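Need fresh eyes. Consider my entry:
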Amino acid sequence: MIKHPDKYHDFEDPQAQPRYTGIATFFRTQAVQKLDQVDIGVIGVPFDGGVTNRSGTRHGPRAVREQSTLLRRINSVTRIEPFAATRVRDLGDCWIEQPYELQGALREIETFYRGVTAAGIVPLSVGGDHAISLPILRGVAAHGPVGMVHIDAHCDTGDDYMGSRFHHGAPFRRAVEEGLLDPKRVIQIGIRGTTNDPDMWGFSQRSGMRVLPMEEFDDNGWRHAAEEARRVASGGPTYLTFDIDSLDPSQAPGTGTPEAGGITVLQALRLLRALRGIDFVGGDLVEVSPPFDVGSVTAFNGASVLFEILCLLAEALGVRRGARPA
C-alpha cells in the first residue's frame, strides 16, 4: 500500500476505505493467483458460448465485480461477517483459451474447478451463461452427487437444441445424467414464461426434481419457497445457483432471456437469508448481460445477491468446521 492513512486507521483495511477507490475486485477482497490460504474463492467465468439468444454475459463478471465494491462487510439482517469468518479471495477469471468450441470450453472450466475444489476451496462463481454450472458441478461433485437450490425463470433441463446438448438451457439435465446431481434433492424456484414445447421441463418432474413455479411462489410467498427448499435440499452437500433472470425484468433488464412476472430483489434476498442451515458447498450467479443493462441495476442487484450467497457459504463452511451458526 503506497497510500497510508494518517488519522483513520480503520482504513488500513481496503474494504473499509471509500468505496470509489482502489482497483475493483469482488467485494474489495484481496486478488490472489495461488490457491493456498483461501477458504472461499470468488471467480469470474466470462463465457457465453452456450447462449441460445442474446449474448453479452461474457461481460458479466467485470460488471458484477465493479458493483460489488459498493457492498460492505457485515450482513445487517443475518449479522453474518463473511470476511471475518473466512478467508475470501478474488481468484480472478477462469477465462477460456479456446472459446469457440463449446464442449472444449466447458472442459477448460471443469479442469480449473477441479483444481480449485481439490485445494479445499469453496467456489463462488459469477458468469457467464448458465452452461458454466455443469463444469463447475463436475468439480464440486467430484466425489458424489449433491443437492441443489436453483432459482431461475427456467428449469434448464432441456436437451438438444440446434445441434448441441450443452447450451445454457440444458446444464442440469446433463448434470443428472452424469451423476453430479441427486434430482430428488433439487428444487427449482421461480419457473415461468412461454415455451414452444409442451414438455419443455418434463425432465425435471420425471426425474424427481421439485419444480416450484412462479405462480406458486406468488400465491404462497418467499417463506413457503424457503421451507420447500429446506425440505428438499437439506440432508447433504448442496449447490446454490441463481440465474438473474429469476428476477422481474423491471429489476434485472440486463439478461439474455428475460421473462415477465418475476421475483423482486427484496423477495430474493429474503428467500436466500431463509436458507441458512443448508450445507452449501458452492454457488454461482449467472446470466448478467451488461449490454442490455440500464444504469447497472442488474449488475448491482446481482452483486447484492452474490453477497447473500457468500454469507450462506461462509456460515455453512464454519458449521462444517465445528462452529455454531450465529
In short: The domain at 29-320 is CATH 3.40.800.10 (Arginase; Chain A).
